[in-house]
Design brief:
The chain has 194 residues and is of the alpha/beta class. It is built from 5 helices and 7 strands. The protein has a 7-stranded mixed beta sheet, sandwiched between helices.
Length: 194
């Protein structure tokens, strides 16, 4: 059985985790640095140009955004790190993400997005350590693969898999531009939720 991603719709946006209603359906959370391309990947996943707002300025997702897809929620978390916002706003985002994960929710899968072009970054390592320690099911989506040749993609995938201490099947190479890895990501989401 597969999800009808084309049915995706924006459900709600929350600037405070305590205002998020009790979980009503399976949830797949998307977490990553501010400039990793979360919104672009979400849009590619559902086959829509602007379901999740994409901006040339990293860090535009300042709230937790819920999108409903065929009976599951795709949850777009604020980016961490890079964004050109105040320290206070960065702390608010970090608290928001932390409060979301502290809730009793249906965490069916966390998609941790990492830019394939860079070696393991401290914040990404911390996020993956947190997911492991919390025993949350996760997969790593290496984004922006279209910026590298196939050979370089494979080298970076192997490198990052080792640096993060993951199994090869926990890492999917993706591109929001070309659609590379999108079907594999859909299968992981469906396996986790259906």
């Amino acid at each position: 059985m597969s999800l009808r991603y084309d049915q995706a719709r924006f459900e709600a946006s929350y600037g405070n985790a305590s205002s998020i209603p009790e979980p009503a359906m399976p949830e797949v959370a998307f977490a990553g640095r501010s400039n990793v391309g979360k919104s672009s990947l979400l849009n590619k996943l559902v086959g829509r140009k602007a379901l999740a707002k994409v901006s040339g300025t990293p860090g535009r997702t300042a709230n937790i955004n819920f999108f409903e897809v065929d009976g599951i929620y795709l949850v777009d978390l604020p980016g961490y790190g890079f964004a050109k916002v105040s320290k206070a706003e960065q702390r608010r985002w970090a608290q928001l993400i932390s409060d979301y994960f502290a809730q009793e929710r249906s965490f069916n899968l966390v998609v941790a997005l990492v830019d394939i072009r860079h070696d393991a970054q401290r914040l990404d390592v911390q996020m993956l350590d947190f997911l492991r320690e919390s025993e949350l099911p996760f997969v790593v989506a290496l984004t922006k693969a279209d910026k590298l040749s196939r050979a370089k993609q494979e080298r970076q995938r192997s490198r990052l898999t080792t640096q993060f201490g993951l199994d090869r099947d926990q890492v999917i190479v993706t591109s929001a531009q070309t659609g590379q890895g999108i079907d594999a990501l859909k299968r992981r989401i469906e396996d986790a939720c259906l």
